Amino acid sequence: MLRLGGFRRVVHRLSRPYNVLAMESSCDDSAVCLIDRLESGPKLVDHRKSTLNSAKEGGIIPIDALAHHLQQLAPLVQSMLEENGRPKIDLVCATQGPGMFSSLAAGLQVAKGLAVAYNVPLIPVHHMLGHLLTPRFFTNGQSPTYPFLSLLVSGGHTMLVLSASVTSHRVLVDTIDIAVGNAVDKCARSLGLVGNMLGKELDEFCRTGDVAQIPDDLNFPLPLEKRAAASSLAFSFAHYASIMPRVSKKFALDPLEEQPEEIRRAIGKRLQADIFHHISRKTTRALNQLVEDGVIPKTQSIDFVCAGGVAANSVLRSTLETLKSPVPLKLHFPHLEWCTDNALMIGWAGIEMYEAGIKNSGMAAVPLAKWPLSSFPSETA
């Protein structure tokens, strides 16, 4: 049986200020940071990141990602410490999961070595917890306030979460197939776009340049809208990734990637609008259900975080800003540089866990490729 690290509550905590070294390696980003945990608020001392370039491969190859972490993590930590006067480290935080097993293992091993060398605690962190807590770093944990909602959108996850505390999370809506970021990447590739971050490429491609007139019926039907599934609280995005070849043949646009930019841009704009409209509809449905169940008072506003790599998308942001919600929403979007995977979010999540009295026997932690947020934290059997 895999051990989740043995979460337990403890009384002893570090007194502020204290220094935190954190790292993220769940996928293809090697990221490290130093945080000075001041009483007045956390201060980001340094953040360094190296991303594997997999544009030629058309996707991330796990063995290449592992090699990248093995080559990059230790030198990133070494240079960061040396260039910041080798500060005393009081706490080490690292991603335990979910993510690519080998990538997670590379980061955890470096983190364990550092924790042993400095003789300090190691806090293994849930990757998605890091994303949803990111806005709280910039407000010293004051906002968003618990309970709050989070729409977590990335290449590996798409879920709407209700968080009652740092350790209590209820997944309201999840994807039944692939994540939105995965679907957007596949669609961008079918439109002939290339790059290391295809979702970003598609967003920028659709925002600049001329747009052709395309038929009104060239659209992408919303998934899970037939009578049997219309009321379901679930996302689905595989439909968008598979429909592109059929659309190009139906409208004599095959091969699609060789069509004029104006046509591909028009299709891309409509595609993004439909994908994020699907997210909007299901999110609204979940909010209505929360109000009907009395979980959220209709007269009370609630904080709403949108985080993860896809949260940087301009169309998604504007869609959420006009979301038809039964309750007032206070939207929180991380700055664009903190939407993608980073070490700051892991460091701050580790700080919140530690200051909540949650200690994880990090030396026993193993990588967890799959780790439902609703089961965090888990006790060791």
UniProtKB/TrEMBL annotation:
GO biological process: mitochondrial tRNA threonylcarbamoyladenosine modification
InterPro entries according to UniProt: ATPase_NBD, Gcp-like_dom, KAE1/TsaD, Peptidase_M22_CS, TsaD
Compartments (UniProt record): Mitochondrion
Annotated NCBIfam families: gcp_kae1
Oligomeric form and interacting partners: Homodimer.
Similarity comment: family membership: Belongs to the KAE1 / TsaD family.
Stored HAMAP family: TsaD
Protein name according to UniProt: N(6)-L-threonylcarbamoyladenine synthase
Source species of the chain: Wickerhamiella sorbophila
